[in-house]
Amino acid sequence: MSKRKLIVWGVFSLTCLFIYSCATNPITGEDEFIIYGEDQDIAIGRQYAPEMEKQLGGKIPDAQLQDYVNSVGQKVAGVSHRPDFEYHFTALDHNSVNAFALPGGYIFITRGMLEKLKTESQLASILAHETAHVVARDTMEAMSREMLVGTALSVALSREGSSTVSTVADVTRQIISLKYSREDEKVADIAGMDYMVAAGYNPYGMIETFEMLESENESSPLEFLSTHPSPENRTGYIAERIELNYYITDNMKTGRDEYQKYVLERLK
Ligand SMILES: [Zn+2]
């Protein structure tokens, strides 16, 4: 190859690498350095969702409750920046107070969290916040920071064999304890609130939820706030945004009776 051809080829390869390496966050509009494509998000989500369920008590064995949680989740995901992902919302039979998002649209909420909530709009606030993490690909980013993506993907893309069972379990434990950044949290709060409102939910449900979590956290630290660390003045900036944008909340859904009937009564 001539020197000139070699230079052209080099520039071409570097350009390809650069394009492949930058992904635009649809919420912030900023370019982010994630070297993996969305197909990999879906491959990881699909591979690790069953193990996630297993490690956190399995699904709550109540089809009606699962349908209800999923329907609320689909409402907020359907008006998100990425309605085209296939979303799955699952309630897990675990006492921790937590919610998670695996890459590619697999979202989980625990029994412990469901028992602390009182209305459908509060449930929507948690599911919308998690949806925003999926849209922004925050789990993938956190996994990249912890050098976890390579291992996770090699398992997800290889044929299943007994040798990978312990790796899947180990990677899942690490995913469960991943921490988002406070900046990711703030972006997820604001985008999540926009999704709630677009889906017709009263956004004050998000303030009620965070006030409840902060106050419960004072008596015993909650898993949710360790993986989703509170940005400064969290309820303050949420309230400010509501007052600026959505001050007529009269006709927005709170759903206290529905939540009582489809979740709290059924968990007893
Ligand atoms: Zn979060």
Global geometry: globular
Helical proportion? 55-70%
Biggest sheet layout: 3 strands, mixed
Count of DSSP-assigned helices: 13
Query: Based on helices, strands and strand pairing, what is the structural class?
Result: mainly alpha
What is the gyration radius calculated from CA atoms? 20 Å
- The SSE order reads HEEHHEEEHHHHHHHHHH
**Span of the ends, CA to CA:** 74 Å
Task: Describe the strand arrangement of the main beta sheet, using strand numbers.
Answer: 3-5-4
What ligands does this structure carry?
zinc ion
Mean pLDDT: 88
Strand content of the residues, in percent? 5-15%
Number of domains: 1
Low-pLDDT segments, ≥5 res: 11-20
Number of DSSP strand runs:
5
Describe the protein.
The protein has helices at residues 3-21, 38-55, 63-78, 111-116, 120-135, 138-145, 149-157, 162-176, 182-198, 204-219, 223-227, 234-245, 256-267; strands spanning 22-24, 31-33, 88-92, 99-102, 106-110. With 268 residues, it is mainly alpha-helical. It has one domain. Helices cover 63% and strands 7% of the residues. Bound molecules: zinc ion. Zinc ion is lined by residues 129, 133, 180, 185, 188, 228.
